UniProtKB/TrEMBL annotation:
<keyword id="KW-0813">Transport</keyword>
<comment type="similarity">
    <text>Belongs to the binding-protein-dependent transport system permease family. FecCD subfamily.</text>
</comment>
<dbReference type="InterPro" id="IPR000522">
    <property type="entry name" value="ABC_transptr_permease_BtuC"/>
</dbReference>
<dbReference type="Pfam" id="PF01032">
    <property type="entry name" value="FecCD"/>
</dbReference>
<keyword id="KW-1003">Cell membrane</keyword>
<dbReference type="InterPro" id="IPR037294">
    <property type="entry name" value="ABC_BtuC-like"/>
</dbReference>
<dbReference type="GO" id="GO:0033214">
    <property type="term" value="P:siderophore-iron import into cell"/>
</dbReference>
<dbReference type="GO" id="GO:0022857">
    <property type="term" value="F:transmembrane transporter activity"/>
</dbReference>
<dbReference type="GO" id="GO:0005886">
    <property type="term" value="C:plasma membrane"/>
</dbReference>
<keyword id="KW-0472">Membrane</keyword>
<protein>
    <submittedName>
        <fullName>ABC-type Fe3+-siderophore transport system, permease 2 component</fullName>
    </submittedName>
</protein>
<keyword id="KW-0812">Transmembrane</keyword>
<keyword id="KW-1133">Transmembrane helix</keyword>
Length: 341
């Protein structure tokens, strides 16, 4: 299962080594994410069964089934898979760069910075559309710059960076509360519900915008695969192999913050998925550092499963998915700490 195979493409001009366990594990996680997505499509509350869902997907469904499955359920399910994958990628990038299992964007304050940027765009600047992810990304990057500046010579390594990130998250949480309280009651209620992290109001327009941003960021993730694998060996070894780690590290931070900002701007700050997905994926596929594809698949499965629970636990009431991820994340942290003790 731990065998390593050499893969050659285009007549040997492109070659690489892959681990059998990593490929199989990533494939299983992708199948699990797809299965959870399919299981989330039927709507018992609306009287749409699994068979009617399959008919709607194949173009043979009734008008009611098409409305429920294609217009209501499909955007939410695809958003859960897409946003979960993006958060899993972001968590894997930051955990490798910081060399810390707590180096997740929701722990070190980058998600809070992106949420602050999104609130400024919506409540202060009163803009929408593509401007919201842009301002959210600027908020996350500014937070990252401030935390890195305060970390000093230690940079991304050591506990100082994580502690400063936690402090920044607490400070930005107060700023976010102030921004919500200064607007009208209706706007504040809407912002508060969105701030928990929810997929209840996701539309095809929101999904298309997030998908375009994800496609733009995907090449950056592909460029980071080899540098992140070499990061565990240290900067000296990476530079000796011809990889400029300083520029790659800056690119990694920018891509990770952008992935977090896009999901935050669309669905609010959803906690713990970026933290848990790379760790769980690593247990499945093994190896070090966490594999990007496996982390993305695990993140997609986690968020899709959490959203399914959010819809079915108190049906017909649909909970914000962020409430479920907080509960699951707290249980995961308790289990992890008990194991390490």
């Amino acid at each position: 299962m731990n065998r390593v195979l050499t893969v050659r493409l285009l007549g040997g001009r492109i070659s690489g080594r892959v681990r059998v366990r990593g490929v199989l594990g990533a494939g299983v996680l992708l199948l699990v994410a797809a299965a959870v997505g399919v299981a989330s499509l039927p709507s018992p509350d609306a009287g749409v069964s699994l068979g009617e869902t399959i008919d709607a997907l194949s173009g043979r469904g009734t008008r009611v089934a098409d409305l429920v499955v294609l217009d209501w359920r499909m955007p939410r399910v695809l958003a859960a898979l897409l946003f979960g994958a993006m958060m899993g990628l972001s968590g894997a990038i930051f955990q490798v760069v910081t060399r810390n299992p707590l180096g997740s964007p929701d722990v070190i304050g980058f998600s809070s910075g992106a949420y602050t940027g999104a609130l400024v765009a919506l409540l202060v600047l009163e803009v929408g559309g593509a401007a919201v992810p842009l301002v959210a990304t600027l908020g996350g990057l500014l937070t990252a710059a401030v935390v890195l500046g305060l970390a000093g010579h230690e940079g991304l390594r050591g506990a100082r960076f994580v502690i400063l990130g936690i402090a920044a998250a607490a400070l930005l949480s107060s700023v976010n509360t102030w921004l919500v309280l200064r607007v009208t009651a209706e706007e504040g209620l809407q912002a508060s519900q969105w701030g928990v992290g929810t997929l209840n109001e996701i539309t095809w327009g929101d999904l298309r915008l997030a998908a375009v941003c994800g496609l733009v960021l995907l090449p950056g993730c592909l460029l980071l695969a080899r540098p992140l694998a070499l990061h565990e060996l240290g900067d000296d070894v990476a530079v000796a192999l011809g990889v400029p780690m300083r520029s790659r590290r800056v690119l990694a931070i920018a891509v990770g913050v952008a992935l977090t900002a896009v999901t935050t701007a669309a669905a609010g700050p959803i906690s713990f998925v970026a933290l848990a997905a790379p760790q769980l994926a690593r247990r499945v596929v093994g190896g070090s550092p966490p594999a990007l594809v496996a982390s993305a698949a695990m993140g997609a499965a986690l968020l899709a499963a959490s959203d399914l629970l959010a819809q079915r636990v108190l049906a017909p009431t649909s909970l914000p998915v962020g409430m479920v991820t907080v509960v699951l994340g707290g249980c995961y942290l308790a289990w992890l700490l008990s194991r390490r003790r």
